Amino acid sequence: VAGVACASALARSGLRVTVFENGRGFGGRLSTRHDRETGVSFDHGAPKLDCTTDQFRQWLESQEKEGRVARWNGNFATVEVSMEEKKCSVRKIEDETPKFVGTPSMSTVVKSLSSELPLDGRFGVSVKTLKKEGKGWVLKGLEKDKEFSSEVFDTCILAVHASRTADILQGSAVHDEFAKVAGEVDSIPSYAMMASFEKPLPCPSVFDHAVVKGSNVIYSITHDSAKPGRSTESDIWVAHATPAFARQHFDEDRNVVAKMMKDEFVRIMHMICEKDIPDPIVLKGHRWGACFPRVSEPLPGHCLFDPSSGLGVCGDWCAAASAEGAFLSGSSLANAILKLHEKGSKM
From the Swiss-Prot or TrEMBL record, what is one GO molecular function term (predicted)? Predict the structure, then answer.
């Protein structure tokens, strides 16, 4: 989100922008997982977009008018689990913070940003090092498992998680100060369980999204099918693991971890509904590495930028551990760059 938000703002101002993306497309933790065999889709990253700033709200409202996002006036709750007593209590959360989701999936949010861009997107590129060449920057790494070296760019922007930022900068022996700031950020991994049921679970309207307390396995549960603009052909649920569980089982087989999480999900839902929960027809697991940065205080300006070298850094870890934080960081960096660059520069 941070990188695309930054690139979008720069491209709209007339700058030439090239985005190098490690994956097959833009998205990050707003990606959507598609099961090819069944056609089922899961929002396996961020379940929703909480909106606390006018800047982010105004952008979301502009996308709402285009039908790309929708407000989610769902039933949000806290689930208190007591495994000893085999009981669960559900407490509704009264929260007036606007919440949005992408439609028909969360990945639409990033697609909305990138669709506005007259930019060159390079996918399947893993940037390993940066090299200062004259007054510009050259990126080196792997493109589809082959070594690559980019053209010279006036400005270089890193929009990756904190540990990856530190690795690239340290490996390139450039900007020790930025590398130190990024290296001091601790990030928490997560694990997502994705389950599709043939019929709606026998406990409708209990909650649409809940933070779970008292479970050693599951941190949150989201009823994907309850989101606006979703298919109702099957009943989709996504659960995210607690940090401790994710760390402990991070390198294990994803199918095994998904089953462990499914068993806990079934136990919790059975205690809530007091009815048997059927087995899912689709069960998937996905590991998220540096998923949640520990942000004690946002960086000044929500980004890092060195005008003298043309190096900038943005990401949720610079502002707040959320999609909104990433959006604000990328937008702030774009504003800083636009003050110094004339139209026609390459980025």
Answer: oxidoreductase activity
